[in-house]
TrEMBL record:
Keyword Transcription: yes
CDD domains assigned to the protein according to its UniProt record, in alphabetical order: HTH_ARSR (cd00090)
UniProt name for this protein: HTH arsR-type domain-containing protein
Superkingdom per UniProt: Bacteria
Domain HTH arsR-type: 238-323
Entry-linked PROSITE patterns: HTH_ARSR_2 (PS50987)
Transcription found in the keyword field: yes
Keywords noted in UniProt: DNA-binding, Transcription, Transcription regulation
InterPro entries hit by this protein: ArsR-like_HTH, HTH_ArsR_DNA-bd_dom, Metal_resp_trans_reg, WH-like_DNA-bd_sf, WH_DNA-bd_sf
Gene Ontology MF, one: DNA binding
PANTHER family: ARSENICAL RESISTANCE OPERON REPRESSOR ARSR-RELATED, HTH-TYPE TRANSCRIPTIONAL REGULATOR KMTR
SUPFAM superfamilies per UniProt: Winged helix' DNA-binding domain (SSF46785)
Length: 323
């Protein structure tokens, strides 16, 4: 049983992530790829990516078994960062944390020469991890990201409506059938006994397509405790997810997130920073950083109207979008 202990301040600090988290989705999809007997949308996803994974994906299997412990350092973010930013944070993990996480993993599964080198913080091992994560993300997560983000966004709206209409307790208990809330402790059906004391830090709930069959959290919480929970999966939407992609060349030039932002501005202009945050699925602060880069590159223009920043695609940006 997982028990999450709340104070009154923690209830006030409860939030639902604005978007699914790319690194949590990657980790949990590695679980799904190795799980026997999955069905529905997860099975459709696994069928779609079968044969498309690079050989380096095999490096990830011993790091993220579907049962047992997965190293905390693989998921340093909680829905507030894009894949590239999260990967940078992952690769900056201290040698102390790497060794602690991988030593615990070694009590459950036989270490390989590579995981031993990784635990020692060897540069070559970290580079292999980086390359494996990038290749896996490109094949298994990125083609479906628009659909995953849409499902998570719809789920977030439902949670918000429940919280507003019925209170935080009702929202928490509606997350999963194996959750109980007594006003101070959230109990979650879990394969091991674990207590998390929030101690004023609040809790971030992160919706996840690949999470299952129950919510999951970190063994050692950082300054932002997190609970990842499964959303309702839409089989048909996932099956066609790969058809709603941005141009690979544009994403390669700008980075996927900035390409999404440029496309969203072109589609809905004039569009506010807050609207972009909801559309793209990252924080307002993150949107501000990306739009600043796009504006400095001459791809968008921004005007202020009654306190709102309104973004438009510039002629140069239109040329870039048209290919």
């Amino acid at each position: 049983m997982l028990r999450i202990h709340f104070s009154a301040a923690d209830v006030l600090g409860l939030r639902v992530s604005v978007a699914p988290d790319p690194l949590w989705e990657l980790l949990l999809s590695v679980h799904a790829a190795q799980t026997v007997g999955i069905s529905g949308a997860l099975r459709a996803w696994r069928t779609a990516v079968r044969g498309k994974l690079a050989p380096s994906a095999a490096l990830l299997w011993p790091l993220a078994r579907p049962l047992g412990y997965s190293p905390d350092f693989l998921t340093p973010t909680a829905g507030e960062a894009d894949f590239e930013t999260g990967l940078d944070q992952l690769l900056a993990t201290s040698r102390t944390s790497l060794r602690a996480d991988l030593s615990l993993l070694a009590t459950q599964t036989r270490p390989t020469a590579w995981t031993t080198d990784l635990a020692d913080g060897r540069r070559e091992a970290l580079h292999r991890l980086r390359d494996a994560l990038k290749a896996y993300h490109a094949a298994a997560i990125d083609p479906f990201w628009d659909v995953i983000r849409r499902m998570a966004g719809a789920d977030r709206e439902r949670r918000a409506a429940t919280a507003i209409g019925e209170g935080a307790g009702a929202m928490l208990t509606a997350l999963h059938p194996d959750i109980r809330w007594d006003g101070g402790v959230l109990e979650v059906g879990y394969p091991v006994d674990q207590d998390v004391h929030l101690e004023g830090r609040g809790l971030t709930l992160v919706p996840s397509f690949f999470c299952g069959p129950r919510p999951i959290t970190l063994l050692r919480q950082n300054e932002r405790p997190v609970l990842v929970y499964p959303v309702d999966r839409e089989f048909d939407a996932l099956a066609i997810g790969g058809s709603t992609r941005l141009s690979r060349s544009l994403a390669a030039l700008l980075g996927r997130t900035r390409a999404q932002i440029l496309h969203a501005i072109a589609t809905d202009a004039p569009v506010t920073t807050s609207d972009l945050a909801r559309s793209v699925g990252i924080s307002v602060a993150g949107i501000s950083q990306h739009t600043s880069v796009l504006r400095n590159a001459g791809l968008i223009t921004t005007v202020r109207d009654h306190g709102f920043a309104l973004h438009h695609v510039s002629p140069r940006g239109e040329v870039l979008l048209s290919g």
